[in-house]
Amino acid sequence: MKRMWRGRIGLSWTVMTILLFQLVFVSGAAWADAFKPGGTFTDEDGSVFEGAIEAIAADGITFGCNPPANYLFCVDDPVTRGQMSGFLVRALVLPPATTDFFTDDSGSVFEGAVNSLADAGITRGCNPPENTMFCPDRTLNRGEMAVFMARAFHLPGSSLDHFDDDNGNVYEGAINSMADAGITLGCNPPANTKLCPGSSITRGQMAAFLTRAPELGLTLMTPPPPTRVPVLSIINGETINVSLDGMNQLVRLIGIETPEVADPCFEEATEALSALVADTTVRIDTDVSDRDSLDQLLRFVFLTDGTFVNAEMVEAGRATAANVPPDSEFAGLFVLLEDQAQAAERGMWDTGGCDILP
């Protein structure tokens, strides 16, 4: 069950929030998705932080880093102060604030979370002593993160000095409290004599810290490995031939359609898909159906860096969106990308004729 912030919350708001988050963030589908082969995101396979990332995704603390599709987590990207606000507000289920605390977050997607964090006393600002600013786009450092975590989870003071590189640092007390709680081990394994308080923190590291927070009660959730297959050949702009379990299999990319062999832009679409996947190993994910009427495997295709091949084809104007229920997980994304490609006259939408291949 979600944790509830123990500050100034009335019973009616608590009940309403539990119901809302059960409906929106803690559905059975969200938990089931965490155990699909490869898990929730396509760019954290094999990462040391994968289990933690999947845990906070299943708990509704993160949705991803590339909305609206959110199939990427951006493991190695630095965390901003705004993003940290979003993580903590979802983790603690903080209520919305009625006060606008800062002058520099207007229009930020994180403004609501920032104000909730300030209302709960977890942040005071980034420009003391005035503290009229929050700096939502500034990269969070490990020392600041320690203060956020210590306040958010009410960590008691520590009598120990865990690290040798934070002496005299304004964040030293919070750092030691966080180490006492087992939320951080250090930044220089295996010795772990340092915390590196001035260094930025990555999204993967943030997932690990949140998963270790005792109050959240999260458990690492490492999914089965994804299905990865070598690409043997490209048939056309929407079909590839792969080797799966020792057999050649045709894979039809879900949700997109490219020109037929006699149509304009057929060659360009085929070459575009070839440029993406030829001689590579790709991850293939199912939606609902396993095969189409031609006995081709129906799959979403991803490169090893998380690039979504189906989406790339539509975005480049080499394919159109083709929603065929029940395989509609990314149908909305494909329509959006098609509209953008058409507006930009990319690929088949080029008024000069199929555009020039990059």
Short précis:
This protein is of the alpha+beta class and 358 residues long. The protein has helices at 11-24, 28-33, 50-58, 81-92, 111-119, 142-152, 172-180, 203-212, 266-277, 309-315, 331-343, and strands spanning 228-236, 239-244, 247-253, 256-257, 281-285, 297-302, 320-321. A hairpin with a 2-residue loop joins strand 1 and strand 2 (239-244).
Portion in beta strands: 5-15%
Helix content: 25-40%
Mean pLDDT across all amino acids: 89
Parts with pLDDT < 50 across at least 5 consecutive residues: 1-34
What is the count of β-strands?
7
Separation of the first and last Cα atoms:
50 Å
Summed up, the domain count is 2
Number of helices: 11
Order of strands in the sheet with most strands: 1-2-3-6-5
Largest sheet: 5 strands, mixed, barrel
| Global morphology | elongated
Secondary-structure element series: HHHHHHHHEEEEHEEHEH
Give a quick set of tags describing it.
358 residues, alpha+beta, OB fold (Dihydrolipoamide Acetyltransferase, E2P), 2 domains, 5-stranded mixed β-barrel, two-stranded antiparallel ribbon, 11 helices, elongated
